[in-house]
Amino acid sequence: MARRERGPDTDPGLGGAGAAAEDAAPAEPESPEQCLSLLPWDRFSAWLHCVCVVGFDLELGQAVEVIYPPHSKLTDKEKDSAYYYGYVYFRQVRDKSLKRGYFQKSLVLISKLPYVHLFRTMLKQIAPEYFEKSEAFLEAVCSDVDRWPPPVPGKVLQLPIMGVIMKLRIPTYRDKPGTTPIVQNMHQADAQISMALPTVHEVDLFRCFCPVFFHIQMLWELVLLGEPLVVMAPSPSESSETVLALVSCISPLKYCSDFRPYFTIHDSEFKEYTTRTQAPPSVILGVTNPFFAKTLQHWPHIIRIGDIKLPGVYTSYKPYLNKDEEIVKQLQKERYVASLMPLQKCISPWKSPPQLRQFSQEDFMKTLEKAGPQLTSGLKGDWIGLYRHFLKSPNFDGWFRSRQKEMTQKLEALHLEALCNELQADREHLPVKTDTLKKLQTHINDIILALPDDLQDILLKTGTT
Predict the structure, then answer these.
(1) CA distance 393 to 397
(2) Residue 377 to residue 380: CA distance in whole angstroms
(3) Contact 85, 2 (CB under 8 A)
(4) What is the pLDDT of residues 103-145, one digit of tens each?
């Protein structure tokens, strides 16, 4: 989950601190003179402001329990002029000794950089191990970050973090959305590279907008014009990702109004944003609390997604431009195959992996009525008949089997990841013998080793083994 909060003066632009540079070669090692000029934690501060551990207590509420480096501050005095981004890994484990019955804590990375994909990847690597090893491990993580080279736009960097080396490229203002130049050079990658990140900051726009893709062009206009928008979602992660997708949809133009990926009743602007005595400000809010369904119902543009009742876009806005039917048709075709994939929330470590939904020729043909090539192609004829015949051909069967294999492997990887994470989280709390846990771990390892090599690689890269 990404959260954006007020903090010391920073520029949240994708180039980080300083002006964007031209595309460049991989960063050169720094000279001894450059190294001597750096003070302790200077390198760390170029990437992160601090790392926090937030505890949740039934009576006291949430409170910062640990902050590192120790000299870092997050006082009210600092929360005045600009913004921080918060990247959160939430841990919840059953604990009958606690009043609520659960141990609940979050590991939070606080940064001035909107590098969503980078910091999420980093959290997946370090958070599970932190909850096992505690503060000494956190200090080691921060020491690793303090050795990273600065995030200079255009540079290709190799960043070590607790035995894992991430290769990535810092974006520039000239980059086109969706381009991944780092991937093009990965065949030349060093054998020591554990993972290559195709992007440090971009979110999956198609996945985020899939629930409202018929309105995507209108949403683009609303964001472009700085209209007040509220996203109502069932979880902080869905709320955050959708808000970030909205902000980035007008790229390369920078969104200059305020946006809060996860807004709560505890935020200082709560009264300002919920008042009915003045028009809502130019801001995009992401919320999950059902309370906002009433307090923000006067907002002019509301997006409901996920499990929220009556999903869709609620607005009286009339777009300036006619809808581009070609975009909708292309998305519609992709959407049907993607819809066969179960939602991630359906994946449980206590159940068998969910199955892909069956491909229905009739359901697919219905999508062609509104999105088929017969509506746009200059070549006239029986397109529907051609599609029906093609769906029975070996070429379609081969293509679909390939897609089916990819989605099945993804489901299996997600299920094993959930199973391993649950085992790691609960091994100190389960009322079973150590020998039993060892046998279970051996059984899981045997399952992983029996998988195809490419699927094993996926699990190894996500750190679940």
Answers:
(1) 6
(2) 7
(3) yes
(4) 788 999 999 998 988 999 999 889 888 888 778 888 899 999 9
Judge whether 123 and 109 are in contact, CB under 8 Å: yes
Question: Across-strand partners of 197?
Answer: none
- Tokens representing 95 are 């604990």
Q: Rounded to an integer, what distance in angstroms lies between the CA atom of residue 247 and that of residue 224?
A: 9
Name the band, by pLDDT with cuts 50, 70 and 90, for residue 22.
very low
- DSSP conformation letters of 73-107: ---GGGTTSEEEEEEEEEEEEE-TTSTTSEEEEEE
pTM of the model: 0.64
285, 3 Cβ separation under 8 angstroms: no
Q: Helix 236-248 and helix 216-224: axis angle, to 10°?
A: 70
pLDDT at 96 over 60: yes
> How far from each other are the two terminal CA atoms of the chain, in whole angstroms?
23
> Which bin fits 189, alpha (ψ -120 to 50), beta or left (φ > 0)?
beta
Q: 204 phi and psi, to 5 degrees?
A: -80, 95
How far apart (Å, rounded) are the C-alpha atoms in residues 369 and 459?
Answer: 40
Question: What one-character DSSP code corresponds to residue 25?
Answer: P
